[in-house]
Structures are given as C-alpha cells and as structure tokens.
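can u do me a favor
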C-alpha cells in the first residue's frame, strides 16, 4: 500500500529577513532563567501537569510505548458516509496498491462503491496511531485521517451562547427564498482563495521590478440596520439579481460561479 497526498496546503509562508542585507534570520532557544542559549543536547521533553510543574519523558520511554509501525490498514467497521459529521475529517490521501495487492484493492473498491459505505480503520503513520475512513473517490480508494471522539469539542461547549431566539414566520420564508435563489450544484473550481491570489500577484509584480501603487478597496461592509426584515428583503433582491446574471450569462462560466469584482 502506498499513500499519496490528496490535499496540498497552499498557505503563503514568509521568512523573517534582516532588512539591511535580506539574510534569513535564525532563532535561538534561550533559557528565560539566565538568558543563555540552550544547545540541543540539553533539551528534554516535558509535559505540563500544572503551573510551573512538568513531567520529564525520555525519548526511549516514548519509543517503548509507540505503536508498531505498519503500512496495513485495519478495517474495524463499515458505516454510511452521511453518518460521519465533517468535523471528524482531517487530512486526505489517495491509496495505491502494491502489485501483489491489486486484486484485493479492486475488490474492496468495487464493494464499497456498490454498498456506498466507508470503512472505519486504524493506521499507524510517523509513530502515531490514527483513526481513518476508507472510501471510494473517482475510481480509487481514498483514506481520510480522522479525529478521535475525545478530540472533537462538543457544540455544548459554547456554553451560554445565544443560539435560541424566536423566529418570525415571514422572516423565515424570506430566508428560505434566499437559499433557494442561491442553490446550485457544487463545483469546487468555481471558488478561489482570492486573498492568496492577490498576494501572489503582488509578489510576481515586485519580483519583476514593477512599482506597486496601493489603492484601498471601497468599503463594501453592509450598513447597520435594526430592521432584520429589510435586510433580508435586500439580500433576496441581490440573490435574485445574481441568479438572473447566471441564467443569462453567455461567457462560458460554469453555472453557479459568481462574477469577480473588476480591479480598480
């Protein structure tokens, strides 16, 4: 079995540089008690059990209790995908079989596809045991690393958050009409990280030696209003307008994709 990353994090990372010579800066580990730098051979792992009190754990002790490394996926149960709340999913991998495992791989893939089930499994990766979901995606098996139940914070942890309020039937009807007006097929390619795209465009321009002139965007924040019904009616009109543009568009854009604002 081989795993291939199915999701790539495209966050933009910046390095801290010295402004005088643009050299990357290095961080030092310093003891706050004496202000001296601590070298790696004097660094140990500690788990905080209360304020200013730690339990020291040696590397050999961690290795002694570490789960046994394996590339096998041990399926424990089969469940429906709609039974798993998305909050449990973490990172996704595509699963490819080794030559000798091609036949059982195909058998499981077709069986899961036909029964529309997800295999709940355990897998050890990088010395850590994970809960995982094994499911068919585009004619291959997909492995979703999942959170254990005690890692998911229950909704009731919000405490006294104001989630209960009386709903006016007319307001509810307008809200439902807004949802209906904006309902379409989910097409992932229609959505973009516009902030990341703008940052990369800025970097490309600066890398090519272009002079950057900053133009602040107009404030599009909604006006404050105490009339919820008026705000809903305005949103409904906007949604209907957007839906009309989608239906009448002839520019070849996929249905359901909103138009981007033109640059100033």
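np, heres the sequence
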């Amino acid at each position: 079995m081989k795993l291939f990353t199915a999701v790539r994090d495209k966050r933009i990372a910046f390095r801290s540089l010295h402004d005088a010579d643009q050299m990357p800066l290095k961080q030092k580990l310093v003891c706050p008690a004496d202000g001296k730098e601590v070298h790696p051979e004097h660094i140990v792992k500690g788990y905080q059990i209360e304020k200013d009190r730690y339990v020291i754990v040696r590397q050999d002790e961690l290795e002694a209790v570490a789960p046994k490394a394996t590339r096998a996926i041990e399926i424990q149960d089969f469940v429906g995908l709609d039974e798993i709340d998305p909050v449990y999913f973490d990172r996704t991998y595509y699963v490819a079989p080794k030559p000798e495992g091609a036949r059982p791989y195909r058998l499981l893939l077709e069986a899961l596809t036909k029964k529309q089930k997800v295999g709940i499994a355990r897998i050890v990766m990088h010395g850590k045991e994970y809960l995982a979901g094994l499911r068919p995606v585009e004619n291959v098996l997909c492995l979703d690393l999942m959170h254990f139940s005690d890692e998911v914070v229950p909704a009731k942890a919000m405490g006294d958050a104001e989630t209960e309020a009386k709903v006016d039937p007319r307001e509810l009807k307008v809200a439902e009409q807004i949802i209906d007006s904006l309902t379409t097929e989910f097409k992932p390619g229609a959505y973009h990280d516009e902030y990341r795209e703008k940052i990369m465009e800025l970097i490309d321009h600066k890398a090519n030696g272009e002079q950057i002139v900053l133009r602040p965007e107009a404030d599009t924040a909604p006006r404050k209003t105490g009339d919820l019904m008026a705000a809903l009616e305005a949103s409904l009109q906007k949604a209907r307008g957007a839906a009309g543009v989608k239906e009448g568009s002839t520019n070849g854009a996929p249905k359901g994709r909103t138009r981007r604002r033109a640059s100033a």
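Residues 1-8+43-149 form a domain with the Ku70; Chain: A; Domain 2 fold (CATH 2.40.290.10). hope that helps!!
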